[in-house]
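Hey,

Quick one before I head out. I ran the complex with NAP overnight. Inputs first:
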Amino acid sequence: MPQNKKAVVVGALGVIGRYIVEKLLAEGDWQVVGLSRRPEKDGPRYRHISVDLLDLKDVARKLAGLNDVTHVFYAAFQPGTGAAANYATVIVPNRDMLVNSVTAVAKASRRLERVVLVTGTKYYGTHLGPLKTPMRETDPRHMPPDFYFDQIDWLTDYQRGKKWSWTELRPQTLCGFAPGTAMSIMPAIAVYAAISKELGLPLRFPGKPGAYGTIYQVTESSHFASAALWAATEARAANQAYNITNGDYFRWRNVWPRIAGVFGMKVGELQTISLTQHMADKADLWAVMTKKYGLRKFDFGQLVAWPFADYVFGSDWDVMSDVTKSRQHGFHDVVDSEAMFERLLKRFRKEKIVP
Ligand SMILES: NC(=O)c1ccc[n+]([C@@H]2O[C@H](COP(=O)([O-])OP(=O)(O)OC[C@H]3O[C@@H](n4cnc5c(N)ncnc54)[C@H](OP(=O)(O)O)[C@@H]3O)[C@@H](O)[C@H]2O)c1
């Protein structure tokens, strides 16, 4: 196959970026350049550039030669320091990384066709509390700050009058198999279930009572990568935003027995606990379990970010994106979320991340 498409994946080592790289390489007709601060080995059709996107000199030196790039997939992210609620603090680095990388590639390459920007459902304020559902792409924004707004406003403004176009994708709670990536709900469920079992406890939903029965949604990482590929190459997706989820909805109370089934456990009565607090003393137990069951060695803190799990299990309001627009524009893939939880958790067991 001719290798006529060349992608730059910005944030290539992230939860989302990794899957996009994998997807493009599997396609066979893409050359891929991955960007992140950490180094990574090159491979067939893959070149990694270790660059700090907040360092303009570093960016200029390392990205100026990218003169044949056709597509940019932007999935870099810098979480905030300080109070989580201080959303304003994350705006500047996240906007500047986008500005610096896209500007460098757009200036270097006359072949640029599309920039795919990954944002998320926090665009609608899913993290703030109850909101209008289903969320549609045309819904008004929530009260700023929200770094997505700054990224989108800059990109739409910068693209105006240029030959290339942009597409913005809004996923929700990515689910994949990426052990060592702590900000993910899959390892949180796997480790919580394994520890409950080890302690002889039934599998209890640890979140808020309202969260057990409310409507929720997720996006499987590999499914999202397929959507990103579609978005990059679909003519109708030029200068458009799309919600990208599995395309179905679920309630944790229906998923919970299936999760318990994977671990051969009984479902217990819901009991709300802070996982951040109740898992804080479990690193020693995990070390014992790692030895006892021959698990792959991970630092307990590297395996799961418990505040993220508390956030997901604390959402006691409907979280429901409308994906009609992406379907109408040609992306028809769907994932059965309940079956996905079983499939991914079985993999966590099979690959010895959890017993
Ligand atoms: N994960 C989810 O469940 C989820 C859900 C919805 C939306 N989103 C959105 O998706 C986007 C990507 O998030 P993610 O979860 O994939 O992030 P992530 O896993 O934290 O990955 C971030 C990537 O950015 C790179 N990066 C950070 N700072 C950099 C810098 N100064 N220079 C170069 N590279 C840098 C990181 O690599 P280095 O550290 O090596 O630099 C890494 O490759 C974000 O906008 C996020 O809000 C995520």
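The pocket of NAP is lined by residues 11-17, 35-38, 51-54, 75-78, 97, 118-120, 171-174, 183 (CB under 6 Å).

Talk tomorrow,
K.
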